[in-house]
């Protein structure tokens, strides 16, 4: 078996990790999505402070619901820290 076919071969570890419904049939889990995309303008709420900071641009979606922000000139905001979606709101 060549390497390409081997990479697509059945792997029992995948089967063990899959989910099943009440009838015992395999199911596909829907992935989580992010509310914002790169270049969206957002406001940032900061714990312990009144009001909102920004607006900033979403520079990158690190993982679903986690973002890295930047200023409009492209420089990183908040030292490139990962920001949770719950702290952001869309700027109009």
Describe, in plain words, how this protein is organized in 3D.
Residues 1-40 are annotated as: Disordered. Residues 17-36 have a biased composition (Polar residues). The strands form 2 sheets. This protein has a 5-stranded antiparallel beta sheet with strand order 6-5-4-3-7, with no helix packed on it. A two-stranded antiparallel sheet has the order 1-2. The chain has a domain at 34-92: SH3 type barrels (Roll). The protein has 92 residues and is mostly beta strands. It has 2 helices and 7 strands; from the N terminus they run H-H-E-E-E-E-E-E-E. The protein is elongated. Residues 10-17 have low confidence and may be disordered.
Brief summary of the model shown:
With 92 residues, this protein is mainly β. It has two helices and seven strands, in the order H-H-E-E-E-E-E-E-E. It is 13% helix and 35% strand.
């Amino acid at each position: 078996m060549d390497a390409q076919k081997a990479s697509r071969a059945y792997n029992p570890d995948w089967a063990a990790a899959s989910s099943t419904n009440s009838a015992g049939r395999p199911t596909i889990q829907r992935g989580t999505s992010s509310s914002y995309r790169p270049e969206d303008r957002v406001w940032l709420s900061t714990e312990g402070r009144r009001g909102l900071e920004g607006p900033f641009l979403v520079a990158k979606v690190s993982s679903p619901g986690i973002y890295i922000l930047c200023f409009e000139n492209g420089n990183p905001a908040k030292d490139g820290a990962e920001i949770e979606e719950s702290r952001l709101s869309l700027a109009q």
